[in-house]
Negative regulator of flagellin synthesis (Alteromonas gracilis), 109 residues
Amino acid sequence: MAINNINNGLPKTPIDNGKVAQQNQTQQSQQQASAQTAQTAPAPRQDSVSLTQSAQQLSQVQKKGSEAPVNQEKVDRLKKAIQSGDYKVNPEVLANKIAKLESEIFSTK
């Protein structure tokens, strides 16, 4: 049985240990240089967000509104009245309440 030569009959080149050591040293120095650059480079700028005072107040109002107690019986009565058509809106009273609320919100009197 014949054994095929993997190198196609070409002689193996001897390993030059000096060259291998030099390549390893070059790689190490490159790694050290990149590590030093990473350490001395300034940290990337962080983005930030700030809310205006109005937005902060709105957030507080929303939080208070979600924590407010709900009179579920009254809500159910109003839903039922609206669905049956029995709920009537007085436009003058509604307009006065809206005007009052706006004056409280925007502090105009």
